[in-house]
Amino acid sequence: MKLILGSAQFQNGYGITRKKHILKNKIVNKIFKIVQSKNINFLDTAENYKINNFRNFKKNINNFKIITKYETFPQHNIYHNLKKKINRDLKKYKVKKLYCLHFHRSSEILKKNSNIII
Fold first, then answer.
1. Up-side HSE of residue 41: CA atoms within 13 Å toward CB?
2. Neighbours of 45 (CB within 10 A)
3. Closest CA to 72 of 62, 85, 60, 61
4. CATH superfamily to which 5-116 belongs
5. Cα–Cα nearest to 111, from 84, 71, 83
6. CA-to-CA distance for 96 and 102, rounded, in angstroms?
């Protein structure tokens, strides 16, 4: 079994915390230390997670395998747009590859030219 650390709660305005509660850097650091000590090395994120204090977040993600989710793609030039998003995240997370890629909407696979994505 593989456990994955979800990062949705590390921000304001998403998930169960909404705008009521922002995790402080100290708490985020503690979470990462605990997770890494338990050999959990998968991190779930998404392009629409606007992580608060991203610099602090980034320093903790070394040695994690990144799982990410993307929103919809324009009908034209799907391949180019997907490639652009992947390259952006490779730089953002300072990794050579993404472990797994999800789409927020499975209907993306039904769009015209979606075979390029597959």
1. 7
2. 23
3. 85
4. NADP-dependent oxidoreductase domain (3.20.20.100)
5. 71
6. 18
The predicted model gives 79-90 an average pLDDT of 88
Rounded to the nearest 10°, the torsion over CA 67, 72, 77, 78 is 40
DSSP assignments along 21-74, one per residue? ----HHHHHHHHHHHHHTT--EEEEETT--BTTHHHHHHT-TTPEEEEEE----
- Per-residue tokens: 37: 């000590």
Q: What is the per-residue pLDDT across 39-63, written as a single tens digit (0 to 9) for each?
A: 999 999 888 776 655 666 777 787 8
Tell me the pTM: 0.79
Mean pLDDT estimate for the chain: 80
Q: Of 43, 73, 70, which is closest to residue 58 (Cα–Cα)?
A: 43
- The burial class, CB within 10 Å (0-12 / 13-18 / 19+), for 43 is buried
CA distance 21 to 13: 9
**What is the torsional sign of CA 58, 61, 62, 67?**
negative
